[in-house]
Specification:
Layout lengths: L3 H57 L8
Length: 68
């Protein structure tokens, strides 16, 4: 049989391990969410840059109105 001090020590250790496991899970979830957000922002930047490039090429190669 365990005495009270050993039981308290064991319970405290188990509680700390459970808290660390929860903290690790929250941290991993936060990092995964951050990575997903960064990937989405990168996709938006790529799309915007591609659209701007197409628009710039259209402007550069647009026919010049010679009547002006």
């Amino acid at each position: 049989m365990f005495d009270i001090a050993q039981q308290c020590t064991q319970a405290g250790t188990e509680l700390m391990q459970a808290q660390l496991a929860a903290l690790r899970a929250y941290t991993e979830a936060m990092l995964d969410g951050g990575m997903l957000c960064a990937e989405r922002h990168a996709d938006v930047v790529r799309t915007t840059l591609a659209t701007g490039t197409v628009a710039a090429k259209q402007i550069m190669w647009a026919p010049v109105d010679s009547e002006r």
